Amino acid sequence: MKKKSFGFLMIAVLMLLLAACGGGNDSGKASEENNADSGNGSEDTEEHYKIGILAPEVTHGWVAAVAYHAEERVKELGDQVDYQIQTSSNAEQMTSQLDDLMTWGADAIVAFPQWEGMEVPIQNAIDSGITVVNFDIAIDVEGVYRVAGDNEDMGIQGANYIVDKIGEEGNVVVLEVPSSGSVSELRTKGFEETMAEIAPDMNLMTYATEFTREDGLADFADILTSVEDIDAVYSIDDETSVGVLQAIQEAGRTDIQVVTGGGGMQEYFEMMPENEDIWIQSALYSPVMVKDAVDIAIDVLNGEDVEEETIIPTTVVDRDNYEEFLDENSPY
What we know:
About 45% of the residues lie in helices and about 20% in strands. With about 325 residues, the chain is an alpha/beta fold. It folds into 2 domains: about 50-150 and about 290-310, Rossmann fold (3-Layer(aba) Sandwich); about 150-285, Response regulator (Rossmann fold, 3-Layer(aba) Sandwich).
């Protein structure tokens, strides 16, 4: 009896062990199937990146809109990114902030380097393995990506517009902004070269100003006291042009037929139909383009093929089509 009972006991133990082993295998398969069904496998894991944004301090509505749209885009990306936005008043401060972002562990930096002297620090960041996408400004750095409007074409469109309105001869004040680097250089280059080609007898008078309405007002008020006859003003910025128009109004001048601009300022658009004596024009250079710069940074980090330079075409806005570009939600 004892031997028989022992035999039954051994059989029972063996059956339990086999059941346990079989149950373990079924549980493993179920776990794998659940992982596959839920999409939690490593192949589907979304990358998480640290994105730094460097912009100038807000001294200009367009710059404020750039910072606004950049932050809006990284917020739209949600949990895919951590981000920091730094603003600076000069190249030295921006360089320090660039170093801070590198220490933070930024995978990519979207930079708007408005000042000279950013070439070396940006090159150092790229050499350390950080993806850098420059917004707007062109600098001589190997490996940097860039997103910008077509600055040179803005000048070309400005020249064509002025000739269309005043003819091939006249006095044109050219307001350049040397402190803006390549932006002013390219817009002025496109304008002057095109004017030399299509209206070689046009008299161009060049003066320096800044991208603010206060400078546009003060500088153009001085110009008006020294230049008796002006047919058109080639201004490369909407906010500067607002100041120019104020100076014209305060001086009571009626000789000026055209004032150009650039950017995409809602207030400037709304002025276009208000003055029938002056053709007010803007070469659209929307601050919303900075969202493309953020997206390109993400694309590069994801290993996608990206062109080093993305240039967004120019659109001319004046009283005939300004309503198409009004946006009550725009911060600029």
